[in-house]
Amino acid sequence: MIVDAHLDIAWNAISAGRGFLGEPAPGYVVSRSSLARGGVGLVFATLYTAPARARRAMRTRFVYENAHEAGLMATAEVNYYRTCDLPLIGDRKQLERYVRGWRRGRLAAVLLMEGADPVESPAQLGAWVDRGVRIIGPAWGRTRYSGGTHAPGGLTALGVQLLSAMRRKKLILDISHMADRAVADAFELWRGPIMSSHSNARDLVSGDRQIPNATAAEIARRGGVLGISFYEHHLRPSGHANLDDIVRHAVHLARAAGGAEHVGLGSDLDGGFDAKHSAMQDTKQFTDLSRKLRKQFSASQVEGVMGTNWLAFLERSLPG
Ligand SMILES: [Zn+2]
Q1: From ligand 1's centre to the CA of 140, what distance in Å?
Q2: What is the rounded average pLDDT of the residues 204-210?
Q3: What is the 58 CA–ligand 1 centroid distance (Å)?
């Protein structure tokens, strides 16, 4: 089973009218049927919300001015997922049952909140857990909780409270988009499951959106997995990336993490970029990707990178 740890499915549907059911919109890659055709069985489906200052960068009017609006938008995304025939995996038992009965064509999701502003206050985290959220990345750009991409800074006081609440609710922490200072704060405070859903190697593409080797190593030491983004500028400084670039980042991250069992996919396909700006234009190419990975990794390592590493991570990280 292929697992993709980062897809902005509801955002694409609600903010841009590119629905998940049916075929992908022209020039895009992801839909329920295209993922199923490609052999994907599980996705980490995001609740992504854009702050007002990102209106231009994200080419959208679907933005929030405050936490309450962010909360309403993320609620709309949860409701969208309910219409997608996409079972939400919430605990180990559900995961185990789903994986055991999986056949090609079936698709399920784990809900990942990207940017925690929709959580109006850490005391209200329980409502989001009840709606199915199991993974939270506190940052995107800067949020009320954390420094983020192009927005240096640590966890805020509210961010420290959020992490305590997340731990009580047995959630998983996603460090993608967190600023270096905030990642350092999290390493100091956080004792729960930790991962990075869609961040590539900073050695290969400089900039704070990518992770340095030491971060990869620390996440691995804590049993986490690192998802590789397929966005061309996350793969190559010049863009124009292809499947070989995904392999390059997989090799690099596996080395930094001390093993390929800590590497997975977090494509972010269609998340603010179309097929032209992606290393993969069609989900059929997942097969080509595993063939290329096989030149660098053993057959079981390739299976791990393509999906079973995420499944093993969820098995040890989701609530029982
Ligand atoms: Zn992202």
Answers
A1: 7
A2: 98
A3: 11
